[in-house]
Design goal:
The complex is a heterodimer. Chain A is an alpha+beta fold. Chain A has 15 helices and 20 strands. In chain A, the strands form 4 sheets. A 7-stranded antiparallel beta sheet of chain A has the order 7-6-5-11-10-9-8. Chain B has one domain: PH-domain like (Roll). Chain B contains 4 helices and 7 strands; from the N terminus they run βααββββαββα. Chain B has a 4-stranded antiparallel beta sheet with strand order 1-2-3-4. Chain B has a 3-stranded antiparallel beta sheet with strand order 5-6-7. Classes of the chains: A alpha+beta, B alpha+beta.
Chain lengths: 480, 145
C-alpha cells in the first residue's frame, strides 16, 4: 500500500534560504493589524510569493509516496517531473535513521538508504518518516545469512569518544559550519547579534596578543574557535556510542542531542580500517573504521566502528565484531632497510629549507616581517610532525596480499592505516615505479578496495620483485 | 526478448530539437545587428545541420537503438557514426529509476535508468508498457535467491 511520508518533509522542501525569506513576511504580518485592505501592494506581493513557496512545498510533499512490499521499496515523487526509484532491501548496504533535535521535537526521523549503485554524493533514497516506521524499514536491511552472530555489544567510553573527536576535528570544518549559522542568526535576529558574535571573536583575540603577533592573533582565534566547534559537533554526535551485531547486521547508535542509528549489512562491508594519528599512537589508541557503501557519506558522519580502542585490544575487538573480515597474521612484504631515507626525505628537506626560506621571505616581504617567524614556526612544527609520522610509517608499513584476507599498513595523509579486506573486495592492485625507484628495485603498491569512492591506499617503497610475486600469487589463487 | 524505443520517441526528440532551434534562432535574430553580417553564413550552416539532424540523424539514431534481453543479460546497442554497445547482468542492477516529464507523460514515454555498481545504463524513451515489463523482469530476477 502506498504511504505518505512525515509532514516534516515540508520543512526540508522549504530550503534553508527560502525559509529565511519567509521570516520578514511573517514579522510584518504579526506586527500589522489584520486589515488586509490597508496592506500595501508590496506586502501583498510578498504574501503571495510566500504562499506560493509554501504551497509548492506542500504539493511536493503530497506527491511523495513510498511502498514497502515483497522485500523492496518503491519511492514515487515529483510534481512535474515524475520519478520512481525501486530497490531491494538485500542490496541496501547501509541504512541511516537520523533524529536531529528538530525532528525529535516533531516525532519524525530521516531515513537514508544506500546501495553500491546509486549516487556518490547523496543517498539513493531519503525519506522523512515517523520514527518507528523508519526503524522498522532500517531493520529490513539484510545481513550475511551464514555469518555467526555475536551476542556481545560494545559501548564506547565518553573519554574515548572525546579523544576520537579531537583527532578527527579540523578547524576548517568548524568554520565552514559556523559561518552560515552566524549569518543565519544575523538574518533571523538582527545584524546586532551578528556584530556581537564577531565582536566576541575580536575580544578573544586579545588574549592571544600576549603570545602571538597581533596580525596572527585573530587568525589563531578563528582557527581555535573553528576547531572547538568541529570538536563539539563530532563529540555530541558520537557520545553514547554503542554497537550491536545480530543476524549479520551491525547496528550503530550514537548521539546525545539528536539520536543517530545506522544499520550495516555485514556482507556489504568491504574493509576494516584501523587508523591512528600521531597523537593516538602516543596514547596507545586506535580508531576502527569500516569501508561500507553509504556509511560515513553524510555530512558530519564518520565511518566509525569503534571510536577508540587500546592498541592491544584492537585486533581482538575487530575479530569479535567482524570475524569474516579479519584473518591471522601472514607473511608480508616490508620496505627494505635502505628505504628509510626515502621515507623521511621530504619532511627533512622541508625542515632544512624553512630557515633560509623564512629569511629570504622576510627580506622580500618586509611589511609582513612580524608574521613570518610565526608562520615559519608553524611550518617547522608540521614538518617535524610529518617526519615522526614518516619514521613510524617506515617501521610499520607492510603488505600481505593473500587469500582469503588481505592486510596492509600504510600512511595516508596524517595518519597510519591498517586495512584488512577480504580478497574478493579488492578492486585493483597496481604498482608504480619512478625512475629513482627503478635503480633501487623499489615500487609503490596501490591497493584499491571496493567502495563508492574506490578507497585507495599506497604502501610506499616496497621491493618490486616481492610485490610482483605477491600479486601473481594473489591472482593465481583467485583464478583457481 | 526484444524491447524497443517508443514510437513517439522520434516525435519527442524532434520537438526538443525544434524548440532548441527556435530559442537559438530567436536569440540569433535579436543579436544579428550586434554580431554583423558575417554570422549569417554561420547561421545558415547551423540551420542546415539542424535540418539534417531533424530529418536524418534522429531517425537514424532511433532505428540504431536495439535493446535485447537474453537470459540474465541486457544488451543495448546504439549509434549512427559511433556505435556503442553495452551489456549488463540484470541481477547486477541494484537500483531502477523511472523518470517522466509532462511531455513524456502525454506521449506515453518513460526514461529508465538502470544503476549498476560503478556505472549506469540509460534507456531514454521506452514506452510505458515496456518500462513496466522491464521493471517486472528486474523484480523477478532480484527475487531469485
Amino acid at each position: 500500500m502506498r504511504k505518505r511520508t512525515h509532514p516534516a518533509m515540508i520543512a526540508t522542501e522549504l530550503k534553508r534560504y527560502v525559509f529565511l525569506l519567509l521570516v520578514p513576511v511573517a514579522q510584518q504580518l504579526f506586527s500589522l493589524p489584520f486589515e488586509p485592505w490597508t496592506w500595501s501592494l508590496l506586502l501583498w506581493q510578498e504574501v503571495i510569493a510566500a504562499s506560493a513557496v509554501i504551497g509548492l512545498a506542500v504539493w511536493r510533499w503530497g506527491r511523495l509516496w513510498y511502498t514497502v512490499k515483497d522485500g523492496e521499496i518503491m519511492v514515487e515523487s515529483g510534481v512535474f517531473l515524475h520519478k520512481r526509484v525501486l530497490l531491494h532491501f538485500r542490496d541496501v548496504s547501509s541504512a541511516d535513521v537520523e533524529r536531529p533535535l528538530w525532528l525529535l521535537a516533531v516525532g519524525g526521523a530521516r531515513l537514508r538508504l544506500d546501495t553500491a549503485a546509486g549516487s556518490r554524493r547523496k543517498a539513493d533514497v531519503e525519506l522523512y518518516l515517523p520514527y518507528r516506521r523508519a526503524l522498522s524499514i532500517a531493520a529490513r536491511v539484510k545481513g550475511h545469512g551464514r555469518a555467526p552472530d555475536v551476542s556481545s555489544g560494545y559501548r564506547a567510553n565518553p573519554f574515548f569518544v572525546a579523544v576520537m573527536a579531537a583527532s578527527v576535528s579540523n578547524a576548517a570544518g568548524g568554520i565552514l559550519f559556523a559561518v552560515p549559522v552566524v549569518k543565519g542568526i544575523g538574518q533571523l535576529l538582527g545584524q546586532e547579534i551578528e556584530a556581537q558574535i564577531l565582536g566576541t571573536i575580536g575580544t578573544l583575540a586579545t588574549f592571544f596578543v600576549a603570545v602571538l603577533p597581533p596580525a596572527t592573533a585573530l587568525l589563531a582565534t578563528i582557527l581555535a574557535i573553528g576547531w572547538i566547534i568541529a570538536f563539539l559537533r563530532v563529540f555530541l554526535r558520537y557520545l553514547r556510542f554503542s554497537l550491536r551485531r545480530s543476524e549479520g547486521r551491525l547496528t550503530v547508535c550514537s548521539g546525545v542531542v539528536g539520536r543517530y542509528q545506522s544499520v550495516l549489512g555485514t556482507r556489504h562491508i568491504c574493509a576494516v580500517d584501523i587508523r591512528k594519528g600521531l597523537l593516538l599512537h602516543v596514547m596507545g589508541l586506535s580508531t576502527v573504521n569500516v569501508i561500507c557503501v553509504g556509511y560515513g557519506k553524510q555530512e558530519g558522519q564518520k565511518a566509525v566502528l569503534l571510536p577508540c580502542v587500546g592498541r592491544k585490544r584492537v585486533h581482538a575487538a575487530c575479530r569479535e565484531i567482524l570475524p569474516e573480515l579479519t584473518g591471522e597474521k601472514a607473511p608480508a612484504v616490508r620496505p627494505p632497510k635502505g628505504a628509510l631515507r626515502r621515507y623521511i626525505l621530504f619532511p627533512c628537506v622541508g625542515l632544512l629549507l624553512i630557515p633560509p626560506g623564512a629569511f629570504l621571505v622576510q627580506i622580500l616581504l618586509s611589511p609582513f616581517s612580524a608574521l613570518i617567524p610565526f608562520l615559519a614556526t608553524v611550518l617547522a612544527a608540521f614538518c617535524l610532525w610529518m617526519l615522526v609520522l614518516s619514521l613510524l610509517s617506515y617501521y610499520e608499513s607492510e603488505a600481505s596480499i593473500q587469500q582469503p584476507v588481505c592486510r596492509f599498513i600504510c600512511r595516508k595523509r596524517l595518519s597510519l592505516h591498517e586495512v584488512q579486506a577480504p580478497a574478493w573486495k579488492i578492486q585493483r592492485l597496481a604498482f608504480t615505479q619512478s625512475p629513482f625507484q627503478k635503480k633501487a628495485g623499489l615500487c609503490h603498491l596501490r591497493v584499491t578496495v571496493v567502495g563508492e569512492r574506490g578507497s585507495s591506499f599506497v604502501v610506499r617503497h616496497l621491493p618490486v620483485d616481492a610485490v610482483r610475486q605477491a600479486i601473481a600469487c594473489f591472482y593465481g589463487g583467485q583464478d583457481g | 526478448m526484444k524491447l524497443t524505443l517508443a514510437k513517439k520517441a522520434m516525435l519527442l526528440w524532434r520537438l526538443w530539437l525544434g524548440l532548441g532551434c527556435a530559442v537559438v534562432g530567436l536569440l540569433f535574430y535579436k543579436l544579428l545587428p550586434v554580431l554583423g553580417k558575417g554570422w549569417v553564413a554561420a547561421g545558415i550552416f547551423a540551420a542546415a545541420v539542424a535540418l539534417w539532424g531533424f530529418f536524418f540523424w534522429i531517425p537514424g539514431f532511433y532505428s540504431s537503438y536495439r535493446i535485447r534481453m537474453e537470459g540474465n543479460r541486457i544488451h543495448v546497442s546504439r549509434g549512427v557514426f559511433w556505435k556503442r554497445e553495452n551489456s549488463a547482468a540484470v541481477s547486477g542492477i541494484l537500483l531502477l529509476q523511472l523518470h517522466q516529464t509532462p511531455l513524456q507523460r502525454v506521449l506515453g514515454i518513460t526514461m529508465v535508468t538502470l544503476c549498476l555498481p560503478g556505472s549506469r545504463l540509460c534507456l531514454p524513451a521506452l514506452s510505458d508498457h515496456d518500462a513496466q515489463e522491464l521493471m517486472r523482469l528486474w523484480k523477478k530476477s532480484r527475487r531469485q535467491p
